[in-house]
Amino acid sequence: MSTDTDEQLLQRIAGGDQRALRQFYERFHGVVYQFSLRTLHNGADAAEVLNEVMLEVWRRAATFAGQSQVRTWLLSITRYKSIDLLRRKRPSELLDEASLEDEAAGEACPASLAIELGQQGAQVRQCLDRLKDGHRQVVYLTFFEELSYPQIAEIMAIPHGTVKTRMLHAKQQLLQCLRRLLGGA
């Protein structure tokens, strides 16, 4: 296992070090795949995005300016590659992000309640899957990747306040969904 920092790995990749790219892949493939899967809902598509992201890392490692964490930079690339794949696969179905925000969505559950209701994991997953993409991404990045709102705002290329608003709405929808599924109102 490499003891190089993420930044050092990127510097080595920028210098053409294929071993560094393999180490980088081993370190981040799960994060990239899971984040893409949350957007695309298809394992084959998420694997395709993973490959595209790692190719982009190989090509653009030298452009990393260190203004954010490597993980934030990487998830930003992943988000754009996932959206690009959606556009290529379903151009007539894809709406711009503003109209996606207005689109009616199902409801889902807050993470703290999900932990308390651990045995109802299937219901929690069902509720999470009903969230709009933007809301689901914010929940995923907050609770599963443990990123801050400013990091999420950078990854998603949206204002910090929008991240807060999406999280608020996501928590409300999650709570309503779980209450309905668990028979509590």
Automatic annotation (TrEMBL):
Pfam families reported for this sequence: Sigma70_r2, Sigma70_r4_2
UniProt superkingdom: Bacteria
Every RNA polymerase sigma-70 region domain range: 24-90
As one GO molecular function, the record gives:
DNA binding
> What sequence ranges are listed for the domain RNA polymerase sigma factor 70 region 4 type?
123-174
Record keywords, A-Z: DNA-binding, Sigma factor, Transcription, Transcription regulation
- Which example biological process does GO assign this protein? DNA-templated transcription initiation
Q: Which NCBIfam families match?
A: sigma70-ECF
Q: Which family does it belong to?
A: Belongs to the sigma-70 factor family. ECF subfamily.
Could you identify this protein by its name?
Sigma-70 family RNA polymerase sigma factor
| Organism annotation | Aquipseudomonas alcaligenes (Pseudomonas alcaligenes)
